[in-house]
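Slide 14.
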Amino acid sequence: MGDSQNVGDAEYVFAVRLRLSPSDPTVRLDPATVETTLFKRAAPPGEDGWLFFRDHLWRGEVNDHGHMCELAEEMLGTDVESVEFRELRTDDAYYEALQDAIAANLELFNADDVPEVLTKYLGSRIHVRDRE
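Slide 15: predicted structure.
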């Protein structure tokens, strides 16, 4: 991860269950589902796509499972049976930039302060890590 604006790094982490559908009718799979982890890079705060958490999460959970499965299917190019949000994995720089962007745009969240926004959408699923 990393970007030129030095706002740090972050990614959304999801558990996903994929359904594999062979195109060859002479092939079958058992099991036909696979569980894996999807990592989606978080857009820099204030830039296009930075409100992903507001638009797709609620209290640390996926807010619309059907829609999130469709989104994951578009990203992965395969059938997705389920998606569960695990965490926003971030470093200090990104987390600070995110809090600053939220504070500057509180009207977008129908909230009084940054901690309320973070709890409202991400619950306790924010994992701030040291840079490696």
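Speaker note: The first helix runs from residue 52 to 56.
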